[in-house]
Amino acid sequence: MDTQLVMGVLNDALDKHPHPEIFNTDQGAQYTSEVHTKRLKDLGVTISMDGKGRATDNICIERFWRSAKCERIYLNEYQSISELVADVDDYIEFYNHRRFHETLEYKKPMNVYQESVELNQKKKKASI
């Protein structure tokens, strides 16, 4: 994974969604690069990095990739990288929009996210 790829994904996410308060990554060179850290700092995002070799620091994303591998990736034989990428994209859409999650009281992550955004907007309006 290189910085250009990471920046493309970051910029795409920031174009589509409100920026987060905290951005947590590992200590990979793409995340510690000047362009990446500057982009986040310019938005006022707090940068958080896991300790070296500490997969448990970001348990949610580790759990996501475990699910992706066990539920989808390991079950298929891909003929090309582009086929794999397309299937991972499809799984991400499924995981966030159509898959019920026990830890979210059997709700879908995107629904929980949207509820949170709406609640925060109501709180902001009430404080004005």
TrEMBL record:
The lineage of its organism: Bacteria, Pseudomonadati, Pseudomonadota, Gammaproteobacteria, sulfur-oxidizing symbionts. SUPFAM superfamilies: Ribonuclease H-like. Pfam families: rve_3 (PF13683). GO terms for biological process: DNA integration. InterPro entries: Integrase_cat-core, RNaseH-like_sf, RNaseH_sf, Transposase_IS3/IS150/IS904. Gene3D superfamilies: Ribonuclease H-like superfamily/Ribonuclease H. Residues 1-117 form the Integrase catalytic domain. PANTHER family: TRANSPOSASE INSF FOR INSERTION SEQUENCE IS3B-RELATED (PTHR46889), TRANSPOSASE INSO FOR INSERTION SEQUENCE ELEMENT IS911B-RELATED (PTHR46889:SF4). Signal peptide: none annotated. This is IS3 family transposase IS1302. One of its GO terms (molecular function) is nucleic acid binding.
